[in-house]
Amino acid sequence: MSQPLDALIMTLGFEPGPLVRAVASYNLRPGAFILVFTPSFKDERAEKAYLELKKICDMVFKGFQVELRKVEVDLTDFVKAVRQVKEILSGLTDKQVALCFTGGMRALCFAVYTAYLMLRWKQHPTVEAYLEGRVERLTIPPLSRIVRVDVTEEKLAVLRLIHQHERLSANNIAVLMRKNRSTIYRHLASLAEDGLARQRGRMYELTDLGLMLM
After folding, report:
1. Are 177 and 184 within 8 A, CB to CB?
2. Cβ atoms of 20 and 55 closer than 8 Å
3. Domains, the chain, ranges and CATH?
4. What residues contact residue 80 under an 8 Å CB cut-off, 6+ apart?
5. How far apart are CA 86 and CA 70, in angstroms?
6. How far apart are CA 172 and CA 105, in angstroms?
7. End-to-end Cα, the chain, rounded Å
8. What are the angstrom distances between the C-alpha of 151 and each of 28, 125, 129, 156?
9. What sign for the dihedral angle of Cα 82, 194, 214, 113?
10. At what angle do helices 106-117 and 78-89 cross, to 10 degrees?
11. Fewer CB within 10 A of the end CB, N or C, for the chain?
12. Beta strands 137-140 and 126-130: pairing type?
């Protein structure tokens, strides 16, 4: 039997079947939770699927202290969606987790998978995709092990400062970090080349990719 999970993460589609099969496939420890990501807009089919899942979980986990949670993700802005999901998943990087794409909009799946890739997992989760209209599921290799943003701690500190102040000049950053301006200019040039920051006049700001990294 697989090691008991601390959390089972799923994306909500229109059919309860994949959700139920995912729940039945894993061993959840007492105190674990099932987290279902769903778009923030309302859809009767998705709501019906979630209610069916809730009814089954209430029966299966009665007395086992397994909690079902639903998180609505705002998909009107992809960057904000990734940041929302990433913030939630960041608290699970040292836990036993399974991430199952059991349905849902493509944008939702992209946001959840992107957030997964951008985190440094201490315990790498199992990642699976359930095939539409079929009972099979596809196991996805742990790509987060090889997808890495090559950003040093000092460059991350530059990004954090820009994020905190929204826009800063190279001189501002040098003063705040107590570094030579030449060093800061090199960092900013590298961050711009990597698509994480951009220059507007004398000021620097984060790109969408930089915001997601933060």
Report:
1. yes
2. no
3. 5-145 (3.40.50.11700), 153-213 (1.10.10.10)
4. 74
5. 15
6. 42
7. 37
8. 36, 23, 30, 6
9. positive
10. 50
11. N
12. antiparallel
Q: How far apart are CA 69 and CA 58, in angstroms?
A: 12
- Low-confidence winner among 7-16, 119-128, 147-156, 182-191 (lowest mean pLDDT): 147-156
Q: What are phi and psi of 44, to 5 degrees?
A: -60, -40
Reported as a pLDDT band with limits 50, 70 and 90, residue 131 is confident
Closest by CA to 189, choosing from 175, 170, 172, is 170
Distance CA 128, CA 19 (A): 12
CA separation for the pair 137, 113 (Å, rounded): 16
pLDDT digits (tens, 9 = 90+) for 42-80: 889 999 999 999 999 998 888 788 999 999 999 999 999
Residue with tokens 């019906």: 48
> 54 — phi, psi (to 5°)?
-60, -40
**Which H/E stretch holds residue 155?**
helix 153-165
Tell me which amino acid residue 74 is: D
CA-nearest of 104, 44, 37 to 71 is: 37
Of 81, 22, 83, which Cα lies nearest the Cα of 53? Answer: 22
What is the Cα–Cα distance from 34 to 202, expressed in whole angstroms? 47
Residue 185, CA distances (Å) to 157, 188, 189 in order: 14, 5, 6
In whole angstroms, give the CA distance from residue 15 to residue 32.
24
Contact present, 205 and 191 (Cβ < 8 Å): no
